[in-house]
Design a protein that fits this description.
This protein is mostly helical. The protein is 53% helix and 0% strand.
């Protein structure tokens, strides 16, 4: 795996982890009972961006390391997904 493909893989994994973790432990203004005028009740009440980004980065690194390790080791290759037999064996 080249440096560029590793960075792209990490970016994809990071954003996937971000979108999965955003709703975790989310308290909305409706849940808190303190709705700020002009906002929806589903808006976050106390959203800590720094803590969320640190957690996402740590989880994404672990997931990325596992995926990169599998790719680099060759345990799973592109040929494993060639169900129609279109790739040559050379």
């Amino acid at each position: 795996m080249a440096i560029t493909s590793g960075i792209v893989l990490y970016a994809v994994v990071w954003f996937m982890v971000l979108f999965v973790t955003l709703p975790v432990r989310l308290r909305t203004q409706g849940d808190e009972g303190k709705i700020v005028p002009g906002t929806q009740a589903g808006a976050p009440a106390n959203f800590n961006v720094k803590r969320t980004m640190i957690i996402v980065t740590a989880i994404a690194f672990v997931v990325w390391a596992i995926i990169a390790g599998v790719i680099i080791s060759g345990a799973i290759t592109v040929r494993d997904f060639d169900w129609l037999g279109r790739m040559s064996d050379s």
